[in-house]
Write a structure and sequence with these properties.
Oligomer: single chain
Number of strands: 18
Mean pLDDT: 76
Structural class: alpha+beta
Distance between the termini: 34 Å
């Protein structure tokens, strides 16, 4: 084993533990509740916070194992062990060095200069935080990442820190707590108040200790309000603060004042956040999203459209009141403008000019009702999908469709063929889109943009064997206790597709 104290070594073990966390977390027996005691170690300006339980009840653990078997063909525990063995030649192991002290809860946070991180990600196409092929954290210099894991045995925790650090680390101390600083990448590992704490640098580690003694994420109104809404049996809880995102959007190149734009829409984003929870069941996963922000746009019920999609759909998504919401957004952007791109009043002017050139943008928008998307097929090679828009008045869409068909026919290397039968539209083939053609068509009150003729036919002519009649969809619908289905994912079918492709 290398004698240097590498962040890769430590994070390969801790992130693998968090992989177990994200696949096995659950709520308490008394209702949904966040692991808020760990939020006390998170700086108040953290913009992403992930939390959960490392020791779920037996029913949740069984559901996770069943899902893991269906998606990967192996158990989760076997996957984690294999990932650890491949991640490095370290003698530190999950079973021997972590399990003796692992407590009930664990959490991870991300903070820092979000505007610079977004710029780096755009320039380098690099993910800020994630589990890579080697189960590590990327080396972006803009990252501020901290991990806290509860410990049941302080002595065993200290032994883990010493073994992970070996002799390639420098000792440090802050506010009475000792820690190890990597001689290689300056990451930090230590034990603080019976918790194992990892940070990507010393400043982050010290900020976590400061947070535990004063101003922390736990004390923010946003986390407090959303923690009470975490559903029972949640697999994973992800907290995302809005203020840092708004600030990054405003400060970045061509910045957009999201607060002003959202206010123009009738909402308020200041001091708000979102919580996304994944709830595992034996045959599926429910995704529950909550926010304490005032809603600016309210989606109507698009479940009727979703239910009309093919029964073999592995993914479906829908939203209602598309026209009304688009009109509201256009009015807000027209009022506020977008700095460096659109002056106030310019958007409506451009729309009026388009109408004069034969594209009735206003008429099209006002006619739109629901939007839906589905992906399905019996094999990976046969996968197809479509975007479906329902319209109360398809005439403006038909007129615009003819104009687009004419314009595309003049493009080089583009082959446009009109559709036969009772649908109005065309199919397009280009060298950039090999394989199945893209079909654009209108029939009745539906506009369809589909990949592949079979998907287009299913979208234009809803099949008798629809998603609403399938057992997985019925199970998902029942799990929502009367709430409308906005998104559907069939993990079992996805697992079958993956297995068949190997």
């Amino acid at each position: 084993m290398s004698k240097t104290f590498r962040r890769f070594l430590i994070t390969s073990t801790l992130v693998a533990g968090l992989a177990a966390l994200t696949m096995t977390a659950c709520g308490d027996d008394d209702g949904g509740s966040a692991a808020s005691n760990l939020a006390g170690f998170m700086p108040a300006d953290a913009f992403v916070y992930v939390e959960g339980s490392l020791k779920p009840d037996e029913e949740v653990a069984d559901d996770v194992e069943q899902l893991s078997q269906k998606l990967t063909g192996s158990s989760l525990s076997a996957w984690i062990s294999d990932a650890l063995e491949k991640s490095s030649d370290s003698s530190v192991s999950l079973k021997d060095d972590m399990e003796p002290w692992l407590g009930q809860d664990a959490a991870l946070f991300v903070s820092g200069d979000l505007a610079n991180q977004a710029a780096d990600a755009a320039g380098a196409a690099n993910v800020s935080v994630g589990v890579s092929a080697t189960v590590g954290i990327s080396d972006s210099s803009n990252e501020d990442v901290g991990i806290v894991v509860e410990s049941t045995d302080t002595d065993a925790s200290n032994e883990f820190v010493d073994k992970a650090a070996e002799d390639g680390a420098t000792d440090g101390e802050y506010e009475g707590f000792s820690f190890k600083i990597s001689d290689d990448d300056r990451s930090v590992l230590g034990v603080v108040d019976e918790k194992v704490v990892f940070a990507t640098n010393q400043a982050v580690f010290e900020s976590m200790i400061d947070a535990s003694k004063g101003d922390s994420l736990e004390g923010t109104s946003a986390l407090s309000e959303l923690s009470d809404k975490v559903p029972d049996g949640s697999l994973l809880n992800v907290f995302i603060a809005n203020d840092p995102i708004i600030g990054a959007a405003s400060e970045g190149a061509g910045g957009v004042d999201l607060n002003s734009l959202y206010s123009a829409l009738g909402g308020d984003l200041s001091e708000t956040a979102n919580m996304i929870s994944l709830v595992p069941e034996a045959d599926g996963i429910s995704v529950v999203g909550t926010t304490n922000a005032d809603p600016a746009l309210v989606s109507g019920d698009a479940s009727g459209l979703i239910e009309s999609f093919p029964a073999d759909s592995v993914f479906a998504l829908g939203s209602g009141d598309i026209g009304a919401n688009l009109s509201t957004v256009i009015d807000a952007i027209n009022e506020e403008g977008i700095e460096g791109l659109l002056a106030p009043g310019e958007l409506k002017k451009s729309i009026d000019e388009s109408t004069g050139q034969g594209i009735d943008v206003t008429g099209i928008i006002e006619s739109l009702d629901d939007l839906g998307i589905f992906v399905g097929g019996g094999s990976v090679d046969g996968l197809g999908g479509a975007l479906v828009l329902s319209s109360s008045d398809p005439e403006p869409l038909k007129n615009t469709l003819g104009l687009f068909q004419t314009l595309l026919s003049f493009s080089q290397d583009v082959r446009v063929q009109p559709l036969k039968g009772d649908a109005t539209g065309f199919r397009v083939r280009t060298p950039e889109l090999p394989g199945q053609p893209v079909v654009v068509a209108i029939k009745g009150e539906r506009l369809v943009i589909a990949v592949g003729l079979p998907a287009a036919a299913q979208a234009l002519n809803p099949p008798a064997d629809s998603l609403a009649d399938s057992a997985p969809y019925k199970a998902a619908e029942q799990s929502l206790s009367g709430e409308n289905v906005d998104m559907f994912v069939n993990p079992s079918a996805i697992g079958d597709l993956i297995a068949a492709s190997n």
